[in-house]
Specification:
Helix content is 33%, strand content 25%. It is α+β, with helices and mostly antiparallel strands.
């Protein structure tokens, strides 16, 4: 059984969460609960989150989809805990 993980939310991410639509915040806390109860490895296997590693400047970070428009960016520590870096709104018109 995988050890549970603790999700740490940065102050920057807390500020972002206050400005987001309620359904996105609810989806975020559902993901957090899943990570803390089941662990990050098991949560990554849930297809709906599309958990994937990032490239370029964000190498070492991972992304989770909360909806078509919002992504959670996080890092996993060596101890297995999760540090939430931020929540991004993805707009297909911004290239």
């Amino acid at each position: 059984m995988e050890p549970s993980s603790k999700v740490w939310i940065t102050r920057f991410a807390e500020k972002q969460l206050r400005k987001l639509p309620k359904h996105i915040v609810a989806a975020f806390y559902t993901w957090v609960k899943s990570v803390e109860l089941d662990g990050i490895r098991k949560t990554r296997k849930i297809a709906g989150y599309h958990d994937e590693p990032l490239k370029g400047e964000r190498k070492g970070q991972r992304s989770v989809r909360l909806s078509r428009s919002y992504r959670v960016i996080y890092e996993e520590t060596e101890s297995g805990n999760i540090v939430l870096v931020g929540v991004l709104e993805v707009n297909k018109h911004e290239y």
